[in-house]
Amino acid sequence: MECTVRWTGLSSGMTFLAETGSGHVVAMDGAPDGGGRNLAPRPMEVVLLGTGGCTAYDVVVILRKSGQDIRGCEVTLKSERAEQDPKVFTKIHFHFTVRGRNLKQNVVERAIKLSHDKYCSASIMLEKTAEITHSFEIVDDLADPPQQLQQQ
């Protein structure tokens, strides 16, 4: 895996464009008090959102493989950082909202635990500096998927 990060130049303040090895581009910027113009997420926000994506992906895959009728998965991350440089994450709380039909609480809990303990490289890496906690809620999705009208 590789990526390239380029500063966009003097006139942009502190805006950077990162290009991933798979050809996708992500913009990052700094806070106005640090020379940025607040045009994009901060680099540490990107680290946090990448971690959320990593663990949400795991949870969905594990629940599908466990035969659960999952319809949605959202994870909200709240973090604290050290006050002194390096301002690493010191606490990160993950709150999952998992939506589906007849989801089993123990299976959802197991999926989250497996992600954090075994599969999510990002959260496993971050737990070297941060206290990682998680919680979850299950929303039973009783609504049937919309039916398509048949044309005659």
TrEMBL record:
InterPro entries: KH_dom-like_a/b, OsmC/Ohr_fam, OsmC/Ohrsf. Pfam families: OsmC (PF02566). This is Peroxiredoxin.
